[in-house]
Amino acid sequence: xxxxxxxxxxxxxxxxxxxxxxxxxxxxxxxxxxxxxxxxxxxxxxxxxxxxxxxxxxxxxxxxxxxxxxxxxxxxxxxxxxxxxxxxxxxxxxxxxxxxxxxxxxxxxxxxxxxxxxxxxxxxxxxxxxxxxxxxxxxxxxxxxxxxxxxxxxxxxxxxxxxxxxxxxxxxxxxxxxxxxxxxxxxxxxxxxxxxxxxxxxxxxxxxxxxxxxxxxxxxxxxxxxxxxxxxxxxxxxxxxxxxxxxxxxxxxxxxxxxxxxxxxxxxxxxxxxxxxxxxxxxxxxxxxxxxxxxxxxxxxxxxxxxxxxxxxxxxxxxxxxxxxxxxxxxxxxxxxxxxxxxxxxxxxxxxxxxxxxxxxxxxxxxxxxxxxxxxxxxxxxxxxxxxxxxxxxxxxxxxxxxxxxxxxxxxxxxxxxxxxxxxxxxxxxxxxxxxxxxxxxxxxxxxxxxxxxxxxxxxxxxxxxxxxxxxxxxxxxxxxxxxxxxxxxxxxxxxxxxxxxxxxxxxxxxxxxxxxxxxxxxxxxxxxxxxxxxxxxxxxxxxxxxxxxxxxxxxxxxxxxxxxxxxxxxxxxxxxxxx
Length: 580
Hints:
One of its GO terms (molecular function) is hydroquinone:oxygen oxidoreductase activity. This protein is mainly beta. It folds into three domains: 30-148, Sandwich (Immunoglobulin-like); 162-349, Cupredoxins -  blue copper proteins (Immunoglobulin-like, Sandwich); 369-560, Cupredoxins -  blue copper proteins (Immunoglobulin-like). Helices cover 8% and strands 36% of the residues. It is built from five helices and 32 strands. The chain has helices at 8-21, 176-186, 341-348, 416-421, 547-552, and strands spanning 30-44, 47-54, 63-66, 70-77, 85-88, 114-120, 126-132, 142-148, 162-171, 195-198, 215-218, 223-230, 236-241, 246-251, 254-261, 264-266, 271-277, 287-295, 309-316, 369-380, 399-404, 407-409, 455-457, 460-463, 467-475, 481-485, 490-497, 516-517, 519-522, 526-534, 538-544, 555-560. Strand 14 and strand 15 form a beta hairpin. Mean pLDDT is 92; it is low at 1-17 and 446-450.
């Protein structure tokens, strides 16, 4: 499988060809950014430590563009470790070379090296984000992508008075690299974070944090577009603003029907565009907490987790509304409890695509390839070379692992995209990722005798160009999962509790106006169904967006073959790809 190796002369010309091929559409622009990966000292929760940042910022710089633009980002790695950057939710049509996941579409950028990404904004409009796609680096290496409508067009809602990126994250007092390496060494779970954050700050309920709490100044009568991003490694989050309702108008850079709610639930990897109307008639208080609380579902209550609530302050500052500060800000009593699964599902069930003339819905009705993918938390032997070693901290002295259809993904030593492009995939990956699970198990993820042993493998799924795919994700692990697909947005046509019934459940699908997303929430011991058309040739990663699950192997790869016309074929390989 793959493309014949191109001659050396053509390789030299490939950069020119690529640049011509990705020129922005008429009226659009090419925008340039420089990202410098650096180690920077930051203090949170009374602890100072060195973290990886872009341009010394936490969160990193926001990319601003319009629909149809080409964004050129030159990443200079001045840090102390290998790194890659992913443009989360950007489809990158025909251009997997700039997608970013380590050892999937590129070798990492080594310290002292640099790589120029070409980020093609084609259909996306709204809020996306960028983040490191190597190890746990995205904990601090992340930022927003704001994509405005094409020039001459506008939002499908009243233009806001101001737009505010709101990035939800997590903070570890320990070095995140050490957290990851310790989990790998022991085979146990990952140490939970010490705080949730809003734009890098935990808020005034945490020690040494009051003076740096994020404050958002608003004026009475104005409307604010909150561009909310969950950049966390481990936590779903509930979000609310005291005294105010929120109107959701977009998810994952695709517009939705307006949905006015008291709170939202946003999973790691997801973005939401939310309108906040500063419409209160104020009495003695002009300050209101914006609050973010962990939402978690776990198979057992003994697993430790971050149960914190981060806060920022929304403060009315216009002269008519301003009041002397008396007492603490009002707290949003509507914020659901940490384990309130019903509240999460009640919110998600209301999301619908906008579906108007300018933003139509095109749900595929005929499916070519049906896939049922079991999501599992499993174990591997503690020591592959010594079967008697049971000293790991996973189940029964084994090593924790994760899988899709009982295959725990193992990253190769060279990237999958290069191996496919040069026709050298044999020995790098296997083209036999299963369409359905080989072992029937119950919804606790076992066959009656505890967690399942799994096996490592670099298995991929090959699709012909234009294939309509339906994937049903079935959770067997006893916790929820945010499943993210690179290279595509997909329609979330169904979701339910319990075991998916292929005879009954498709009748409940929404094929009229389902939300169009790149990251889908799969409920605990339940299922979610997505559909997409495989019309983007290349190599595309699919994985859970919980950081520890990616490391444990809850991943696979779709390879979409070239179509017959030039516009249905992958762009040539840039000559400056990093080397492994």
